[in-house]
TrEMBL record:
PANTHER family cross-referenced by the UniProt entry: ANAPHASE-PROMOTING COMPLEX SUBUNIT 4 WD40 DOMAIN-CONTAINING PROTEIN, MITOCHONDRIAL DIVISION PROTEIN 1-RELATED
Region (Disordered): 1-20
Source species: Marchantia polymorpha (Common liverwort)
Identification of the protein by name: Uncharacterized protein
Tree of life domain: Eukaryota
Length: 516
């Protein structure tokens, strides 16, 4: 459809409705004989796109309106219909390890390290949210008992009544049917070891999984053994193909997995600081047709440490140490950007066309913020005649953070490992992003909100697919709702009327002076 533009100097002359693109005509200057420059132009296009010049402003406006408006406690007690089992004594305070929305944003699944899988209804959480109240509870629809700590949970895109999860120390993939009343898994997939059935020795444990949308019965998972396992639920409950990276990085696990939208490329982030790429295309030699002998080696292996050392300004300011890749995620609006999060707390974007880092955010590592009472308990070995500098080792209880992209704006939400806040990182393409390596800060550029203060330390975050409301899982086991708090327009108008009737207007009144 062609684009129609109506030019007018007076808004009253414009046609009603938003069916046409509207662009105000610039007024004519009689002195210079040319049209005056108008700083603010409004253009409503028929295809509904936002002008590129307005996107940075809208992103800043959106981020400044975000705040935490609810903190909900998850009930950690066993329901009466739970099977009798011995309590896990090694878990002192359960924290949320993973969280995920379904495609429509109706249901929310969350798992914790105590072996619980909760299913929530988002509207119930939103309507019952009471900020600052200790009695607020995250009422769940279903609660499934899992024997071990839940590492990742995903909704089945072909059947959204079904949710799958993987756990620590197990080579099983559990499927649960939300529509059924039973608490037992509806299906269990197994990893077939090289020597047949059984455990995989000391390298047991799956960390992440992903579903194929085109091949509805297929899914992949990665884990501690450094392999990518593939299943086809139509043929067998055992994995039929395996892709490894042992030749490049022996005895290293894979923490995160991601599929491209066309499901032709597979990305994995490893414990050794690598991002691996596999090409799943291959005709007769494809991993879905024959065994994966020809697909053991990835197409590319990118070491993030080497990419960061190429940045001269970053190398001059701080020491770049090896760090594991805890999470990777493709930008839903631009698959050219692959965001990564490191265990040291750094986040960035890898350009998949050039395989270079284009954006970077480098906060202090989680173990740098040590309380003053902990400094006295750290032993410092000194040598006579040599000045000793205390060195603080990384904490062993640092959680694996799981960030998320917003669906509407190119913003990457990351939970801070050193403080109770969420970093809202604007990873817009080009030099306009303040985290871009080509960004040049001008004097006229204004500061805007990039950190959201929260009541608890955030571990995992999920974004609502329709309105970009964030649901964050905390180290204390709570669920935080972060977004634009909605209020009634009628109540706002009534409060303004009452305020104007009670406050007299005069010279000494701030309201009277403002009205004048």
């Amino acid at each position: 459809m062609d684009k129609f533009v109506v030019r007018a100097t007076d808004p009253s002359d414009l046609p009603p409705g938003n069916q046409l693109s509207i662009r105000p005509e610039r007024p004519w200057c009689s002195t210079t004989g040319c049209k005056k420059r108008v700083t603010l132009l409004s253009a409503y296009e028929i295809h509904g796109r936002i002008l590129p010049a307005f996107k940075p402003f809208l992103t800043r406006l959106m981020l400044s309106s975000y705040s935490e408006f609810a903190a909900l406690n998850q009930d950690q007690k066993h329901p009466s219909w739970f099977p009798s089992r011995q309590p896990r004594t090694n878990v002192i305070s359960p924290f949320v390890t993973t969280i995920d929305f379904d495609s429509k944003g109706i249901y929310l699944a969350s798992g914790n390290n105590a072996g619980r899988l909760f299913i929530h209804e988002f509207e119930t959480l939103y309507c019952n949210a009471e900020k600052g109240s200790d009695q607020s509870r995250a009422l769940y629809l279903r609660c499934f008992p899992v024997d071990k700590a839940v590492q990742a949970v995903r909704w089945n895109p072909s059947n959204e009544d079904e949710v799958a999860c993987v756990t620590t120390g197990s080579n099983l993939v559990y499927f649960y049917d939300v529509a059924c009343e039973t608490f037992l898994p509806s299906e269990v997939l197994k990893v077939k070891s090289l020597s047949g059935w059984g455990e995989l020795g000391g390298s047991v444990g799956l960390f992440d999984l992903a579903f194929f949308k085109i091949g509805k019965s297929r899914l992949v998972a990665c884990g501690k053994d450094g392999r990518v396992h593939l299943w086809d639920r139509r043929s067998s409950k055992a994995s039929y193909a395996t892709m490894t990276v042992h030749d490049t990085e022996p005895s290293r696990g894979l923490n995160s997995i991601q599929l491209s939208s066309d499901e032709q490329m597979l990305y994995c982030g490893s414990e050794g600081g690598y991002i691996y790429l596999w090409d799943l295309r291959g005709g007769k030699n494809s991993a879905f047709v024959s065994s994966a002998k020809d697909y053991n080696q990835p197409v590319a292996a990118i070491r993030i440490e080497n990419q960061l050392r190429k940045i001269s300004s970053l190398r001059a300011q701080t020491d770049i140490c090896p760090s594991s890749v805890d999470a990777i995620s493709l930008n839903p609006a631009c698959e050219k950007q692959l965001a990564f999060h490191l265990s040291c707390g750094w986040s960035g974007v890898l350009d998949m066309s050039t395989l270079d880092v284009t954006h970077i955010h480098c906060p202090p590592p989680p173990w740098s913020h040590i309380m003053s009472d902990q400094r006295d308990s750290i032993s410092v070995f000194s040598t006579p005649g040599v000045a000793t500098v205390p060195t603080f080792q990384p904490r062993t209880d640092v959680r694996r953070r799981k960030p998320v992209w917003l669906n509407t704006f190119p913003v990457y939400a990351v939970g801070s490992g050193s403080d109770s806040k969420v970093h809202m990182l604007d990873f817009t393409l080009g030099p306009k992003s303040r985290y871009s390596l080509d960004h040049y800060r001008s004097n006229s550029e204004k500061e805007w909100q990039t950190e959201l203060r929260t009541s608890e330390a955030v571990v995992a975050i999920a974004s609502h697919p329709l309105n970009d409301t964030l649901v964050a899982g905390c180290e204390e086991g709570k669920l935080l709702l972060i977004g634009q708090k909605k209020s009634s327009v009628a109540e706002h108008e009534i409060s303004e009327i009452d305020l104007e009737s009670k406050v007299p207007s005069g010279e000494g009144s701030a309201f009277g002076a403002k009205a004048e």
